[in-house]
Amino acid sequence: MRVVIAEDSVLLREGVQRLLADEGIETVAAVENGDGLLDAVTEHKPDLCVVDVRMPPTFTDEGLRAAIECRRRYPGLPVLVLSQYVEERYAVELLAGGASGVGYLLKERVADVKEFVDAVRRVADGGTSIDHEVITQLMVRSKKSPVDKLTPREREVLGLMAQGLSNTAIAAALVVSDGAVEKHVGNIFAKLGLEPSNSEHRRVRAVLAYLDS
Fold first, then answer.
1. pTM to 2 decimals?
2. CATH, domain 2-141, list 3.40.462.20, 3.40.50.1010, 3.40.50.2300, 3.40.50.300
3. Distances from the Cα of 117 to the Cαs of 112, 124, 179, in angstroms?
4. What is the pLDDT of residues 62-99, one digit of tens each?
5. What whole-number distance in Å separates Cα of residue 40 and Cα of residue 32?
6. Which pLDDT tens digit goes with each residue over 184-201?
7. Per-residue pLDDT band at 147 (split at 50, 70, 90)
């Protein structure tokens, strides 16, 4: 796997690069701003971009906007956002802009190496990995949403789906049977107007449906 990292903090940039190298993942470019990210993606055509949200010159949302532009230029390019914050407007635009290969994790997750590496591989493979706290903040941004139709348990299941967990993993996390999870997933699809299915594409669409509501 070939990765481009966009992060203005030298320590974090080098730390992520070394962490990925330990897992056999090659960093083909490590840049510190949005323009550098666009140039690196154009030059290297990576398998994944790991992108900070706030970078020079204004330290607001340059990284996230650059990630969205990368996805526009190269549809389907997997992007994993790392941030200390949830930038609501552009986060929704990124996550709702495609049904595969997107992730949004808070930087504290990098401390859990296994969880971070799992997210990197999942997003690079076209899946999704969205931090539970990100999901929580985006869910409350609107008072009316299709997610309002869901029961509390169905919301839990949908939140775990957003993190990229399989039905079996969700069952283990909630201490319920696989059959119970399958039933909840079917109900979620029905309430969000999606045909029941266990395919990855439908699962991602279910997550994106309420993020874009």
1. 0.70
2. 3.40.50.2300
3. 9, 11, 29
4. 888 899 899 889 988 999 998 887 776 666 677 666 55
5. 11
6. 988 888 888 776 555 555
7. confident
Neighbours of 190 (CB within 10 A): 12
Residue 111's Cβ-count burial label (10 Å; 0-12, 13-18, 19+) is exposed
Q: What pLDDT is recorded for position 115?
A: 85
The Cα-based distances of 33 to 7, 19, 59, 64, 174 in angstroms read 7, 21, 10, 11, 40
Q: Are strands 48-52 and 128-130 parallel, antiparallel or unpaired?
A: unpaired
Q: In the prediction, which pLDDT does 209 show?
A: 62
Is there a contact between 36 and 6 (Cβ–Cβ < 8 Å)? yes
> For position 44, what pLDDT does the model report?
96
Q: What is the pLDDT of residues 170-184, one digit of tens each?
A: 999 999 999 999 999
Per-domain boundaries in the chain: 2-141, 146-212
Which burial class, exposed, middle or buried, applies to 16 when counting CB atoms under 10 A from its CB (0-12, 13-18, 19+)? buried
The kind and range of the H/E element at 26 are: strand 26-31
| Backbone φ, ψ for residue 125 (5° rounding) | -85, 5
**Rounded distance between C-alpha atoms, residue 3 and residue 45, angstroms:** 9
Cα–Cα dist 43/204, whole Å = 29
Domain 146-212 has CATH 1.10.10.10: yes
